[in-house]
Automatic annotation (TrEMBL):
GN (gene name): aceK
Alphabetical keyword list: ATP-binding, Cytoplasm, Glyoxylate bypass, Hydrolase, Kinase, Nucleotide-binding, Protein phosphatase, Serine/threonine-protein kinase, Transferase, Tricarboxylic acid cycle
Binding site for ATP: 324-330, 345
Protein name, entry field: Isocitrate dehydrogenase kinase/phosphatase
Top-level taxonomic group: Bacteria
Compartments where found: Cytoplasm
Domain Isocitrate dehydrogenase kinase/phosphatase (AceK) regulatory: 23-318
């Protein structure tokens, strides 16, 4: 120290913020998130009307990333306000109480609860996760009321049916953009007349917010009559010279498929998501709250809804978690609770040959699927950290396997088993089991046909599945085949599809090694049949429906279309729903 200088003063430690200040800052972070979330939703009509499909894809990815960014910003703002990062139960119990007070009357209160949970979990690295600190069990016992009069436009059907629908498109601000609305309304009236008579229809009801996804706009509502009601989804798409009314969907199962967990999330602008979803649940009562929140891009709260439902189910059931049926994978270990309709997947510590990827690469593949257009053919996943299970519900064989294949991911406590990193997906019947149990050739043909359609639609969306074995595909309750094993997926545009060269000499075909060079991204479609089509009935059906998948020309043709920016439309409804 220099002569005459003063001793350095110790910096004062940061002053601990009050619970009310912490609560207010977290809610500020959430409100900012929902403003940005709503802003990107509000831009969906313009992107749709302009046919800005690249903009649609960018907005979809950007919206998914918003949440984590706002959580990160909020955590950074809170750090200087905390005396230490040691969990103080009293501090956070009171912060939660003050936060609950701030949420009274808040239009997105349930979403704000989930944001509080996310901030706390990020601050304390998923420690201290209990009801004292977090909104784990539903704080609000009652769902939003069913208030169609506030959410919907209503039009009389007693006299001029076409006029009612024209008014619906007018209120949706789509009317001036149609190519031939009169012609479309004639087709719609013809299609709906039997249903209108059956119901003695009196009223058309359409939600004020319009739903947008990919290349489609969807008006959602119901037809009400003296003899009942029917859900209604009107699908609008681009034609050659303007908009066209492409489909009218009135069956509950078909509506459910439109809102499927295998598709990208909708863009819909609403300040009252709980009320909107209460209406959708009325139309599709078989949909869970978790599915519906996720379907409109609120997937973080969808996780909260799933977890609450999972806890309720555990309290009402007694069966044990077991290894999932089917062929075991080389990358993921999969287990399930027989009485609950999901599977739990964790990444193994080591992958058996010939797998060459690592955990980080597998996680990147799952993130890719989360942000990509799933075109109805890839299952959505929910990702969890430090997911706790009651130990007594694990079968001994399951616990033994998890500790053997993924010991770094499993913590065993006295009464709990904690999985550090977990993916959860809807449970489906593995396609290999479906085909093995097929009762006749017709069922085989359906499974094989759907399998080929799934591959073709994924390819059209720039996704090459990689491992195309039947065990990596599942069959939904609607009979659709869906891909769910993502560790080897790649972009079509990154793949090199080749035809196997002719052998130079007869001995070439007998050699242990190929007589031609093979690069890391080289794919030879004619080889697919060797490991897929061993069973005669399957081979016969596949060749009848999807022989083109065995040719490099087919794949290269799709690849060229994608590189030219031509993405085909893949509609989320059956062909016979179209007008």
């Amino acid at each position: 120290m220099e002569f005459g200088s003063q001793p350095a003063q110790k910096a004062n430690p940061p002053k601990q913020a009050s619970p009310k200040q912490l609560a207010y800052r977290i809610l500020t972070g959430f409100d900012q998130h929902y403003r940005l979330f709503s802003r990107i939703n509000a831009g969906a009509p313009e992107r749709f009307l302009k046919g800005d499909w690249h903009g649609v894809q960018r907005a979809q990815k950007e919206r998914i990333r918003y949440y984590s960014r706002r959580v990160t910003e909020t955590v950074a703002a809170l750090m200087p306000k905390l005396g230490s990062l040691t969990i103080s139960t009293e501090l956070w119990r009171q912060t939660k109480a003050d936060y609950s007070t701030l949420l009274e009357g808040h239009p997105q209160a349930e979403l704000a609860e989930t944001f509080f949970n996310s901030v706390f979990s990020r601050l304390f690295r998923h420690r201290g996760l209990d009801d004292q600190h977090l909104y784990i069990r539903a704080e609000r016992a009652h769902r939003a009321a069913f208030i169609p009069n506030q959410l919907c436009h209503r039009f009389s059907l007693t006299h001029a049916c076409k006029y009612a629908f024209r008014q619906g498109f007018n209120f949706a601000r789509l009317l001036p953009h149609f190519e031939d609305l009169d012609g479309d309304l004639d087709k719609l009236e013809q299609r709906l007349t039997p249903l209108l008579k059956q119901l003695s229809a009196t009223t058309l009801e359409l939600l004020k917010p319009v739903f947008f996804r990919n290349k489609g706009a969807y008006l959602v509502g119901r037809i009400i009559g003296d003899h009942g009601e029917s859900p209604l989804i009107l699908a609008v798409r681009h034609g050659d010279n303007g908009l066209v009314l492409d489909a009218a969907i009135t069956r509950q199962d078909d509506c459910s498929v439109v809102f499927s967990f295998t598709r990208a999330y909708f863009m819909v602008d609403t300040q009252s998501p709980a009320a909107l979803l209460r209406y959708l649940r009325h139309l599709m009562p078989n949909k869970s709250w978790a599915e519906l929140y996720t379907a409109i891009g609120l997937q973080k709260h969808g996780k909260t809804e799933f977890y609450r439902d999972f806890l309720r189910h555990l309290n009402q059931s007694s069966d044990q978690f077991v290894i999932a049926p089917g062929i075991k994978g080389m990358v993921m270990s999969v287990f399930t609770l027989p009485s609950y309709d999901v599977v739990f997947k964790l990444i193994k510590d080591r992958f058996a040959p010939p797998k060459e990827s690592n955990k980080q690469q597998v996680q990147e593949k799952y993130n890719l699927v989360k942000e990509h257009d799933r075109v109805g053919r890839m299952a959505d996943t929910q990702e969890f950290r430090n997911f706790a299970f009651p130990r007594h519900r694990f079968s001994p064989s399951l616990l033994e396997e998890l500790l053997e294949v993924a010991p770094s991911e499993v913590e065993v406590e006295e009464d709990r088993i904690i999985i550090k990193h977990l993916y959860i997906e809807r449970r489906m019947v593995p396609l290999n089991i479906y085909l093995d149990n097929a009762e006749d050739d017709e069922q085989v043909a359906h499974g094989v046909g759907e399998y080929g359609n799934a591959i073709k639609q994924l390819a059209a969306a720039n996704i090459f599945p990689g491992d195309m074995l039947f065990k990596n595909f599942g069959v939904t309750r609607h009979g659709r085949v869906v891909f769910y094993d993502y560790d080897e997926i790649d972009y079509m545009t990154d793949c090199n599809f080749r035809t196997i060269p002719e052998p130079r000499f007869p001995e070439d075909e007998m050699a242990a090694e190929p007589w031609y060079s093979v690069g890391p991204k080289d794919i030879f479609p004619e080889e697919f049949g060797r490991f897929l089509l061993g069973r005669l009935a399957i081979r016969k059906s596949f060749l009848a429906q999807h022989r083109d998948l065995l040719t490099a020309d087919y794949w290269n043709g799709l690849k060229q279309q994608i590189e030219a920016g031509n993405y085909p439309e893949i509609r989320p409804y059956r062909e016979d729903c179209r007008l």
